[in-house]
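Box S1 | Example of a co-folding query
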Amino acid sequence: MFLNNAWYVACMPAEIDDKPLGRTVCKQPIVFYRGGDGVVAALEDFCPHRGAPLSLGRVIEGKLVCGYHGLEMGCDGKTIAMPGQRVRGFAPIRSYPVVERHGFVWVWPGDAAQANAALIPDCAWADNPDWAYGGGLFHIGCDYRLMVDNLMDLTHETYVHATSIGQKEIDDTPSVTKTEGDQVTTSRFMANITPPPFWKLALRGNHLPDDQSVDRWQICHFSPPSQVMIEVGVALAGQGGYHADAKVKASSVVVDFITPESDTSIWYFWGMARNFNARDKALTAAIRDGQGKIFSEDLEMLERQQQNLLAWPERALLKLNIDAGGVQARRVLDRLIAAERVGAPASPVSAS
Ligand code: FES
Ligand SMILES: [Fe+2]
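Box S1 (continued) | Returned holo structure for FE2/S2 (inorganic) cluster
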């Protein structure tokens, strides 16, 4: 149950710098590599000779050479040559639209005719010296929508991330969720609270005191197919909160690109982009470290939740107020997936 006609992050550029990468996206095994002039290419990971994965091969002079018997494959999926053979009658394999942009490699697993690079999301931090970005990649054994639920309901921070970003006030402050077109937003604003450890680190990183009360915010933005950008931050209390002057706050964007591998596994590209003290590489590393530890705390919960859901598929689950973000995101996805199946353009429904 995922959208195929959409851009997904397939990998980070460094993953294909030295050799081809085999990665399954939306149940489709794909090989990613750098062809001629280093331009990224994506093909089905299946050699037309005997079905070996092309990702076990090597790139030689821009051609992907099968690691089994040396078939030479072109970026368009057409066989170029094979030792001792004529290749003109070889059936082509599928090639995928693929673009390297914003520090990621993006792939379109659906109908290639509909792929439009202009639909790749904007990433304000990319190639911008006023911003710094640090991130990583996790493979997690869960339905991608469980990860969306997780990111659209941050009350779990109080329990899963108790020692870093969790605090009781998150539970005590209701969030507000709304859907506009295909976008779902869940917001929570907390006034006059003690910053938890991760935010103390960020305050110090922006040369601000870490022993004063702050106003804190979390604004989660879901966009199809499965990305969640979360505006997060703290400002010294009483100075305007989210709208406070940059000098009195530490804020950033939690970046989450979720790529389904199968019905029950994902490639999770996570990161944090910040526009304060952007040149401080040690701070970028410290934040990345902290965020990596925090996000690794979600893994066991999500994987064990998935196992429970597989074991008891008939069990009904509750939908509470805190679940509104995930519920509304699923509603958007259901509508878009249904429209994709019948080949119709999907018209946005009104907010609910
Ligand atoms: S399987 Fe690829 S060349 Fe034989
Ligand atoms: Fe979490």
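The pocket of fe (ii) ion (ligand 2) is lined by residues 150, 156, 160-161, 298 (CB under 6 Å). The mean pLDDT is 95.
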